[in-house]
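Exercise 3.2. Students should predict the tertiary structure of the chain below and write it as C-alpha coordinates, then compare their answer with the key that follows.

Predict this chain's 3D structure.
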Amino acid sequence: MAEQDGAKQTRAFGRLSPLGLGLTAAILTFLLDQITKVAFLLRVGRDIFTPPPGFGAGPSIEVAPFFSLTLVWNQGMSYGLLQAESALGRAIYVGFTLVIVPVLAWWLFRARSLFLALALGLVIGGAIGNNLVDRIFYHAVVDFLHFHVGEFSWYVFNIADTAIVFGVLLLIYDAFWGTEQQANGRAN
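Answer key:
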Protein backbone atom coordinates (compact mmCIF):
# COMPACT_ATOMS: atom_id res chain seq x y z
CA MET A 1 0.00 0.00 0.00
CA ALA A 2 2.78 2.44 0.89
CA GLU A 3 4.44 1.65 -2.44
CA GLN A 4 1.23 2.58 -4.28
CA ASP A 5 1.02 5.89 -2.36
CA GLY A 6 4.59 6.71 -3.38
CA ALA A 7 3.81 5.92 -7.02
CA LYS A 8 0.75 8.17 -6.87
CA GLN A 9 2.83 11.00 -5.34
CA THR A 10 5.44 10.85 -8.11
CA ARG A 11 2.71 11.05 -10.75
CA ALA A 12 0.45 13.52 -8.94
CA PHE A 13 1.10 16.40 -11.35
CA GLY A 14 -0.98 15.16 -14.27
CA ARG A 15 0.92 12.17 -15.50
CA LEU A 16 4.38 13.65 -15.10
CA SER A 17 7.07 11.99 -13.06
CA PRO A 18 9.46 14.19 -11.11
CA LEU A 19 11.92 13.97 -14.02
CA GLY A 20 9.18 14.89 -16.50
CA LEU A 21 8.11 17.88 -14.42
CA GLY A 22 11.69 19.08 -13.96
CA LEU A 23 12.51 18.79 -17.66
CA THR A 24 9.25 20.52 -18.58
CA ALA A 25 9.99 23.35 -16.14
CA ALA A 26 13.53 23.74 -17.54
CA ILE A 27 12.37 23.78 -21.17
CA LEU A 28 9.45 26.16 -20.53
CA THR A 29 11.64 28.49 -18.45
CA PHE A 30 14.29 28.57 -21.16
CA LEU A 31 11.77 29.15 -23.95
CA LEU A 32 9.79 31.84 -22.09
CA ASP A 33 13.02 33.63 -21.17
CA GLN A 34 14.42 33.61 -24.70
CA ILE A 35 11.11 34.44 -26.43
CA THR A 36 10.51 37.45 -24.16
CA LYS A 37 14.08 38.70 -24.68
CA VAL A 38 13.91 38.37 -28.47
CA ALA A 39 10.47 40.02 -28.57
CA PHE A 40 11.72 42.93 -26.47
CA LEU A 41 14.92 43.37 -28.49
CA LEU A 42 12.92 43.39 -31.72
CA ARG A 43 10.44 45.87 -30.21
CA VAL A 44 13.23 48.33 -29.39
CA GLY A 45 14.86 47.86 -32.79
CA ARG A 46 17.92 45.82 -31.79
CA ASP A 47 19.57 43.25 -34.04
CA ILE A 48 19.12 39.93 -32.25
CA PHE A 49 22.04 38.26 -34.04
CA THR A 50 24.77 40.77 -33.24
CA PRO A 51 26.27 41.64 -29.86
CA PRO A 52 25.63 45.27 -28.92
CA PRO A 53 28.35 47.80 -29.81
CA GLY A 54 28.33 49.04 -26.22
CA PHE A 55 26.86 47.93 -22.95
CA GLY A 56 24.80 49.68 -20.31
CA ALA A 57 21.25 50.98 -20.34
CA GLY A 58 19.29 51.21 -23.57
CA PRO A 59 15.77 52.25 -24.53
CA SER A 60 12.92 52.13 -22.03
CA ILE A 61 9.17 51.68 -22.54
CA GLU A 62 6.89 52.72 -19.68
CA VAL A 63 4.14 50.13 -19.26
CA ALA A 64 2.67 51.39 -15.97
CA PRO A 65 3.63 54.06 -13.42
CA PHE A 66 5.54 51.37 -11.48
CA PHE A 67 6.81 49.15 -14.33
CA SER A 68 8.94 49.71 -17.43
CA LEU A 69 10.63 47.58 -20.04
CA THR A 70 14.19 48.92 -19.87
CA LEU A 71 17.06 47.40 -21.81
CA VAL A 72 20.16 46.73 -19.73
CA TRP A 73 23.10 44.65 -20.96
CA ASN A 74 24.25 42.90 -17.79
CA GLN A 75 27.81 41.59 -17.94
CA GLY A 76 27.71 40.39 -14.34
CA MET A 77 25.76 37.87 -12.33
CA SER A 78 22.31 38.40 -10.88
CA TYR A 79 21.55 42.02 -10.08
CA GLY A 80 24.71 43.15 -11.88
CA LEU A 81 27.11 41.72 -9.29
CA LEU A 82 30.65 40.70 -10.29
CA GLN A 83 30.86 42.34 -13.71
CA ALA A 84 32.76 40.30 -16.31
CA GLU A 85 33.63 42.80 -19.02
CA SER A 86 36.30 40.74 -20.79
CA ALA A 87 36.18 37.64 -22.97
CA LEU A 88 37.86 35.76 -20.12
CA GLY A 89 35.12 36.83 -17.70
CA ARG A 90 32.41 35.65 -20.08
CA ALA A 91 34.26 32.36 -20.59
CA ILE A 92 34.40 31.84 -16.83
CA TYR A 93 30.62 32.34 -16.52
CA VAL A 94 29.94 30.04 -19.48
CA GLY A 95 32.38 27.45 -18.09
CA PHE A 96 30.77 27.60 -14.66
CA THR A 97 27.38 27.02 -16.27
CA LEU A 98 28.74 24.09 -18.29
CA VAL A 99 29.85 22.50 -15.00
CA ILE A 100 26.84 23.32 -12.81
CA VAL A 101 24.02 22.46 -15.26
CA PRO A 102 25.10 18.79 -15.62
CA VAL A 103 25.41 18.52 -11.83
CA LEU A 104 21.89 19.93 -11.41
CA ALA A 105 20.63 17.62 -14.19
CA TRP A 106 22.14 14.62 -12.40
CA TRP A 107 20.35 15.74 -9.22
CA LEU A 108 17.13 16.14 -11.21
CA PHE A 109 17.40 12.60 -12.59
CA ARG A 110 17.64 11.34 -8.99
CA ALA A 111 14.84 13.54 -7.58
CA ARG A 112 11.94 11.63 -6.08
CA SER A 113 9.63 14.53 -5.31
CA LEU A 114 7.81 16.78 -7.73
CA PHE A 115 8.65 19.80 -5.57
CA LEU A 116 12.41 19.21 -5.78
CA ALA A 117 12.19 18.45 -9.51
CA LEU A 118 10.31 21.70 -10.16
CA ALA A 119 12.93 23.69 -8.23
CA LEU A 120 15.81 22.11 -10.15
CA GLY A 121 14.05 22.58 -13.48
CA LEU A 122 13.58 26.31 -12.83
CA VAL A 123 17.26 26.78 -11.98
CA ILE A 124 18.46 24.71 -14.95
CA GLY A 125 16.23 26.53 -17.46
CA GLY A 126 17.23 29.93 -16.09
CA ALA A 127 20.94 29.12 -16.06
CA ILE A 128 20.92 27.90 -19.65
CA GLY A 129 18.99 30.97 -20.81
CA ASN A 130 21.10 33.55 -19.00
CA ASN A 131 24.57 32.12 -18.74
CA LEU A 132 24.87 30.15 -21.95
CA VAL A 133 22.69 31.58 -24.69
CA ASP A 134 22.86 35.26 -23.73
CA ARG A 135 26.58 35.29 -22.97
CA ILE A 136 27.47 33.38 -26.15
CA PHE A 137 25.25 35.38 -28.52
CA TYR A 138 25.18 38.82 -26.90
CA HIS A 139 28.31 38.75 -24.67
CA ALA A 140 26.02 39.89 -21.84
CA VAL A 141 22.68 38.98 -20.27
CA VAL A 142 19.62 40.79 -21.64
CA ASP A 143 17.72 42.32 -18.69
CA PHE A 144 14.57 44.35 -19.29
CA LEU A 145 11.94 43.98 -16.52
CA HIS A 146 12.10 47.08 -14.30
CA PHE A 147 9.90 47.81 -11.29
CA HIS A 148 10.08 51.26 -9.72
CA VAL A 149 8.01 53.47 -7.41
CA GLY A 150 8.81 57.16 -7.12
CA GLU A 151 12.53 57.45 -6.48
CA PHE A 152 12.87 53.76 -5.59
CA SER A 153 14.13 51.62 -8.45
CA TRP A 154 14.44 47.82 -8.23
CA TYR A 155 17.07 45.99 -10.24
CA VAL A 156 16.39 45.34 -13.91
CA PHE A 157 16.00 41.60 -14.44
CA ASN A 158 14.52 38.95 -16.75
CA ILE A 159 12.45 35.75 -16.69
CA ALA A 160 15.53 33.55 -16.15
CA ASP A 161 16.55 35.59 -13.09
CA THR A 162 13.07 35.15 -11.65
CA ALA A 163 13.11 31.40 -12.31
CA ILE A 164 16.54 30.99 -10.71
CA VAL A 165 15.52 32.94 -7.60
CA PHE A 166 12.27 30.98 -7.17
CA GLY A 167 14.07 27.71 -7.88
CA VAL A 168 16.73 28.43 -5.25
CA LEU A 169 14.06 29.44 -2.71
CA LEU A 170 12.24 26.17 -3.40
CA LEU A 171 15.52 24.25 -3.01
CA ILE A 172 16.12 25.92 0.37
CA TYR A 173 12.56 25.13 1.45
CA ASP A 174 12.93 21.54 0.29
CA ALA A 175 16.25 21.15 2.14
CA PHE A 176 14.64 22.03 5.46
CA TRP A 177 10.97 21.09 5.16
CA GLY A 178 10.59 19.12 1.93
CA THR A 179 8.94 15.78 1.30
CA GLU A 180 12.22 13.85 1.26
CA GLN A 181 13.07 15.26 4.71
CA GLN A 182 9.65 14.14 5.98
CA ALA A 183 10.11 10.69 4.46
CA ASN A 184 13.42 10.33 6.29
CA GLY A 185 11.84 11.38 9.60
CA ARG A 186 13.95 14.53 9.87
CA ALA A 187 11.11 17.06 9.64
CA ASN A 188 9.94 19.01 12.69
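Discussion points: The two ends are 25 Å apart (CA to CA). Residues 65 and 81 are 27 Å apart (CA to CA).
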